[in-house]
From TrEMBL, chains A, B:
Protein name, UniProt field: tRNA(Ile)-lysidine synthase
UniProt function note: Ligates lysine onto the cytidine present at position 34 of the AUA codon-specific tRNA(Ile) that contains the anticodon CAU, in an ATP-dependent manner. Cytidine is converted to lysidine, thus changing the amino acid specificity of the tRNA from methionine to isoleucine.
Gene name tied to this protein: tilS
Record keyword tRNA processing present: yes
EC number(s) reported in the record: 6.3.4.19
Reactions it catalyzes: cytidine(34) in tRNA(Ile2) + L-lysine + ATP = lysidine(34) in tRNA(Ile2) + AMP + diphosphate + H(+)
Organism: Flavobacterium aquatile LMG 4008 = ATCC 11947
Principal location: cytoplasm
Annotated Gene3D superfamilies: HUPs
Positions of ATP binding: S26, G27, G28, I29, D30, S31
Compartment annotation: Cytoplasm
Amino acid sequence: MLTKFQNHLNSQFSFLKDKKLFIAVSGGIDSIVLVDLLYKLNYEIAVLHCNFSLRDAESDGDEAFVKSFCKERNIEVIVQKFDTKQFASDYKLSIQVAARKLRYDWFYEQLEKRSFDFILTAHHLNDSLETFLINFSRSTGLDGLTGIPAQNDKIIRPLLPFSREEIEVYAKENEIQWREDSSNSSDKYLRNKLRHDVIPILKEVQPNLLSSFENTVKHLQQAQSLVNDASRIIYKEVVTEDDNSIKINLSKLIQLTNYQAYLFQWLKEFGFVAWDDIYDLVSAQSGKKVLSPEFILVKDRDFFILTSKIDSQINQKFLIEKEDSKVNIPLKFTFCNVSDISITDSNSIFVDENKLQFPLTLRKWQEGDYFYPFGMTGKKKLSKYFKDEKFSLIDKLTTWILCSDNQIVWIINKRMDDRFKVNNNTTTILKITIT
Amino acid sequence: MLTKFQNHLNSQFSFLKDKKLFIAVSGGIDSIVLVDLLYKLNYEIAVLHCNFSLRDAESDGDEAFVKSFCKERNIEVIVQKFDTKQFASDYKLSIQVAARKLRYDWFYEQLEKRSFDFILTAHHLNDSLETFLINFSRSTGLDGLTGIPAQNDKIIRPLLPFSREEIEVYAKENEIQWREDSSNSSDKYLRNKLRHDVIPILKEVQPNLLSSFENTVKHLQQAQSLVNDASRIIYKEVVTEDDNSIKINLSKLIQLTNYQAYLFQWLKEFGFVAWDDIYDLVSAQSGKKVLSPEFILVKDRDFFILTSKIDSQINQKFLIEKEDSKVNIPLKFTFCNVSDISITDSNSIFVDENKLQFPLTLRKWQEGDYFYPFGMTGKKKLSKYFKDEKFSLIDKLTTWILCSDNQIVWIINKRMDDRFKVNNNTTTILKITIT
């Protein structure tokens, strides 16, 4: 397996060779084997371990095991302990969602803090097969059947071509110890059912199930890329965009025999689900509409016009009072005073509270908006910023803006304004977080 | 269920209303329920039943049951008894392939003979789900996951949106009798495994499995239509065809990041399977090639050139002697003398044996070929015929031609020549069949 793994890295991830790599390690067989493989191939690695404090002594046992495993090999290990239950209750999240959020936020924080390049996780072919079957048993589109991606931004999954069996054989042959899997995944019950009851029967019928699946996923990924091409090509021919709406030319559209497929591709990202209503709208009378949680699709003579609901209620603003420590609508915010600024991500900002005028307002962008991008001295029109950052129409329509006395404080999740930043004169630091 | 079925017919198959419909009936619950539904809705129906003589008394019991079921309702029933084992052994086919061939050939023969319009079969949602899982457990592309088609030429499957459970409930409520399923499908073992061991577990996890699956299939069919669009659009930009080859412009092709996906789409119908070799060929030196059973893909400087192997061995001809009653290479033929011509399909022709000069030859088409299309008086260039019939390149390259003294007798499976037809002066009729 070591050789196959090395070949796989050389052919698919040759760019990792001189990079600094974190490995996300639970202590289970998959992640421990991943560390062992990369260690033997002399990659520059360090280990990240999350202790979610969910199973008391067992969690601490995992932590101790990971530490000692790494110490024997002189691999640096960074451990973070989380009070997951508290966090989940504070933010009204399920334990699983909370753990995932804590884990990935911390991973990205460590990447930045330590100037590492990538985080490697130990997902393998069986995980991908289980994910396929879970998505399949629900209702899904092609994108739900294309497997776990091998790379997702800074997250890389080099074990995806390997089956659980290969990993187990390797661990035994190399006398590697591990901790029994301690996943807290919400779909553990489901995965166990598939793992123990469904997949063995499929394997009985088709002994090459896993390698067949690997091929199938490759073909489906290729098909997905062609779907995206067709969608993009026809979009250019049939759709026009302006600042706040998109216009679908119906007489061009319905020349396509499969125009419903295109409507589905284009509109699904706007949260529509009532597909039959949308298909009926094509031949409905002018003025009829179909709604998604945030958008309106109107039939207007020979066109479909898609606009944001907010845009159509132009004065809709949400006020945030000084006393509010949490806001739930239209986004979930928390506000808390902190003594110092710390490493952050796109979900939070630190501002000088005394520079704010309450109530703050939360709204969508308007023509004429400008702001002072954080870290720059000048001001910039928001329309120019959107263009430079290659915002799509949906990005523009879904982006919220936090304002103080109609000055932009934060283009939420994107960029804060320089005027409100913390400096040496700041006496009260307010941390604003989107949860 | 009757109402839901009626609505389904009205929305998807409204064109069936005034048509003459055969129903393929085994006597099992699915086909019997289909007859009952269509009978109650007053469609103009007749029943086709195949007795494959594979299970002796049981087969005869099925036949008797179907006859009596139809008699009670005054529905015409046409029964055909086959010696399936003999046929399978004669043509060296598996029992299952033989039964399928006998069934569909006979169905189409009856359609023509009786001037009926369509044949309805009773495939339902569970069949489609099982087919999905069978294809999935093997290696498949998107086309293997888009379910059983609702219509395929003259074959229509109006029960596809209905689950086995719905059909069972309907049969019980309406006190309908049926024969236990007598399928001889080669994948019966596999289907039973899925039906009894796999699908119930998936349903336990996801009670809406079947309706989810129905949605999934719709989405995948839509995706497939977009894949076909992209494939066609890019083909026009990158590929040129001439009479006997296609040329893929590699410098245009590799500008696409997903060019492998296009190569897969374009080349799979030519029988290629060594995909990695083909992908490597893109950067290989001029002159290298990859083979499929019938085709050659050559790298020629900045192009891929695809030609038929036969074309590249221009003199390759297969001779058929007068004594040959069977030919196996390159196609499977049988020759037999018959006393009269009967209803036929595209797989066989009747010729005046005395007009033939043996040995006959079997070859691909050549520039300059012409023939006298059956039923017409004049002659026609083959290149013109191909154009009029909208033959694709692959059609032209895969079509075989049977010649007598270099006169075309039959463009196999397409059109016979008028010069060799049976007429009043014919003394010896030869039936030539492709099996």
